[in-house]
Specification:
D-amino Acid Aminotransferase, Chain A, domain 1, binds magnesium ion, globular, 378 residues, alpha+beta, binds adenosine-5'-triphosphate, Methane Monooxygenase Hydroxylase, Chain G, domain 1
C-alpha cells in the first residue's frame, strides 16, 4: 500500500477521522512523513480533529499510534476554577520545569519523543541511562511513559533542582498508546513503584473545598524554593488536569524572555503579567506584599534586557549557552542536526571531557539591538 492510500484508507479508520481531513492535512504539510535511524512514521505537526499535534504513527511492521501529549489548561483563579472544573477530590502533583518527553517501545527499540513528535537522540539515550525501562516495556508494550527531563545539563530547559542536579527524569503520566487514555493516579503510582520508576511528587489529595487554600500555600512555598508550581488532577484522570504556577516561575520566564527581547519578549510578556495580577488578587496581598511582587516583576523585565544590550554593545551575539553530556563529537553533531530540524540555530563552542558546550543564537535580538545601538529608529 502506498503512503497516500494508507492516509486515506487505513489511517482514518484507525483514528476515527474523516479521510478528507487527513488528506488535507497531508497536502498542507501538517501531516508529515518522518524518518530517521529510530523510526519511520507519520508526524502530526498540527492537530487533526481530536488527534493532538505531536501524535506519531509508526509505520514499522506493526502500525503503532503514540498520541500527542494534550495541552494542560491554566487556572488564574483557583477557588472558582476548581469548584466548576472538578468533582469531589483533587490530587495535587508538583509541576516540574523541564521538557515534556514521551517514551514508548517501538519494536525493537525504546524511543523518546519530545513534545512535537520528534525523536530526540539525546533524550532517547539518556532516558535509558537514567531508568531501567526494559522490564516495564516487556510487560506493558501498549503503554507510554510521559514525564519531564530535568536538570541543569539539559539542552532544552535548564533548571536547578537539588534532588536532580545535572540530569534526571520524573514521570507524571502513564497512558495508553492508541487512545492516550491516562491511568488513574493511584494505579499509576503503584505501577511505577512496582518497576522502580521515578514519579513526580504527589503533594496531597484534597476535597475541592479545601484545595484552593492548600494550593495557594503550597505554591507560595514552592516558589520560595525556586520551584514551578502544581498540576491539579482528577484522581481518576477522567477530567482534564489544570495547571497553576508560582510568582517566581513567572518571573524566571520573564527573565529568560527579556534576555532575548526581540525573539521571545512579546510572546511571553502579557500572559505572565496577567498571571501575576490574578495571583496577587487571589492571595489577598497586603500593600507591602504587592509592592514586593511589583518590584520583582519589574526587575525581571528590565535587568536582563539591559544586560543583553550591554553584551551586544561589545559586538557579541545574544546567545544562550548550554552544556550537555556527549560520548563523542558525532553524538553532538547528531543533536545539533536535530535542533536545526526544529528551527533552532545552535553552534558547538567546545567539546571536552565528554561534555559539549553549545550556544543557541538568538538572531533577531542580536540584529535589532545592534541596529538600535547604531542609531536605527524604532
Ligand atoms: P501545554 O501545551 O501543555 O500548556 P506548555 O509548553 O505551555 O504546555 P507548561 O506550561 O510547562 O507547558 O505546562 C504543561 C507541561 O507541564 C506538560 O506538558 C508537562 O510537560 C509538564 N509537567 C510537569 N509536571 C507535570 C505533572 N505533574 N503533570 C503533568 N504535566 C507536568
Ligand atoms: Mg514546562
Amino acid at each position: 500500500m502506498s503512503l497516500k492510500e494508507f492516509i486515506v484508507k487505513e489511517l482514518p479508520e484507525l483514528l476515527d477521522l474523516e479521510p478528507h481531513k487527513l488528506e488535507e492535512s497531508y497536502k498542507k504539510g501538517n501531516l508529515k512523513f518522518y524518518q530517521n535511524r529510530f523510526i519511520t512514521a507519520l508526524q502530526f505537526r498540527k492537530a487533526v480533529g481530536k488527534i493532538e499535534a505531536g501524535t506519531m504513527v509508526s509505520l514499522g511492521e506493526e502500525i503503532q499510534v503514540i498520541r500527542g501529549f494534550p495541552k494542560i489548561r491554566r487556572t488564574l483563579m483557583l477557588k472558582e476554577a476548581i469548584k466548576s472544573h472538578f468533582q469531589g477530590e483533587v490530587a495535587v502533583e508538583e509541576k516540574m520545569n523541564g521538557y515534556n518527553v514521551r517514551i514508548a517501545f517501538i519494536d525493537p527499540e525504546i524511543v523518546a519523543f519530545t513534545r512535537g513528535g520528534y525523536v530526540c537522540p539525546y533524550t532517547t539515550k539518556k532516558a535509558q541511562e537514567l531508568m531501567d525501562l526494559t522490564q516495564f516495556f516487556q510487560d506493558h508494550g501498549d503503554l507510554v511513559i510521559c514525564g519531564e527531563m530535568l536538570g541543569t545539563n539539559n539542552p532544552y530547559v535548564s533548571h536547578y533542582y537539588p534532588e536532580i542536579g545535572e540530569l534526571g527524569f520524573r514521570i507524571f503520566d502513564v497512558r495508553e498508546k492508541l487512545t492516550g487514555k491516562p491511568l488513574p493516579i493511584n494505579q499509576k503510582r503503584e505501577l511505577l513503584n512496582e518497576y522502580n520508576l521515578p514519579p513526580v511528587n504527589l503533594l496531597g489529595v484534597y476535597s475541592i473545598e479545601d484545595a484552593p487554600t492548600k494550593i495557594l500555600e503550597l505554591v507560595k512555598d514552592l516558589g520560595e524554593n525556586g520551584r514551578e508550581g502544581v498540576v491539579i488532577k482528577d484522581p481518576q484522570m477522567e477530567i482534564p488536569p489544570l495547571k497553576y504556577t508560582s510568582s517566581q516561575a513567572h518571573d524566571d520566564e520573564l527573565i529568560y524572555a527579556f534576555k532575548f527581547p526581540f525573539d521571545l519578549g512579546q510572546a511571553f510578556f502579557f500572559s505572565r503579567v496577567v498571571r501575576e495580577g490574578f495571583q496577587s488578587y487571589e492571595m489577598q496581598e497586603s500593600e507591602e506584599e504587592m509592592k514586593q511582587r511589583a518590584q520583582r516583576l519589574g526587575e525581571s523585565i528590565l535587568y536582563p534586557m539591559v544586560q543583553t544590550i550591554k553584551h551586544v554593545s561589545t559586538h557579541e551575539v545574544a546567545g544562550e549557552d548550554l552544556t550537555m553530556d556527549a560520548e563523542s563529537p558525532e553524538e553532538v553533531e547528531e543533536f545539533l542536526r536535530h535542533l536545526r530540524d526544529l528551527g533552532v540555530v545552535a553552534v558547538l563552542i567546545k567539546y571536552e571531557d565528554g561534555k559539549a558546550f553549545i550556544r543557541k543564537v538568538h538572531q533577531s535580538t542580536t540584529d535589532k539591538i545592534t541596529n538600535y545601538l547604531n542609531g536605527g529608529l524604532y
